[in-house]
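Memo subject: From amino acid sequence to discrete backbone structure tokens
Keywords: amino acid chain, backbone geometry, structure tokens, three-dimensional fold.
Body of memo: The sequence and its backbone structure tokens, given next.
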Amino acid sequence: MQIREFAAQDWDQVWPIVEEVVRAQETFPYDPALTADAAYCMWVEAPPGRTAVAMDGERVLGTAKMGTNRPGPGSHVATASFMVAADARGRGVGTALCQDALAWARRQGYAGMQFNAVVETNRSAVDLYRREGFRVVGTVPGAFRHPTLGRVGLHVMYQEF
């Protein structure tokens, strides 16, 4: 597996991953009616942010976006989001993307990385982030409407560098 910068021609493979994750409504608080054009504008980060893809040969297995969490006085903290194709989960793709994003943020001189809305029932993501050094600094109870579990919490997770 190779992780590299996103290129515009990758969108044909990235969009189905984004669409599947968003439509499932289990892990991301995005509108399930999201269109490909709107998703492109939301997912593909303009510099100094970065969008990456995890590749197996010519196939996109997953994608990440990263950048500044908040402007101005909060601009010293990075954030990132990750999506992995359903048939590639459990193969280390998310871990590799997370490690890549952390390395990028450190190279950029950020003081830490914050995840603003990690669905508490997304155990694989929560466990991955904890393994990579993040901790839950707070949970907003009932802030996410899960399609089968009802209202569940959203974690804010942080790692200081």
In short: The chain has a mean pLDDT of 97. The chain has one domain: 2-160.
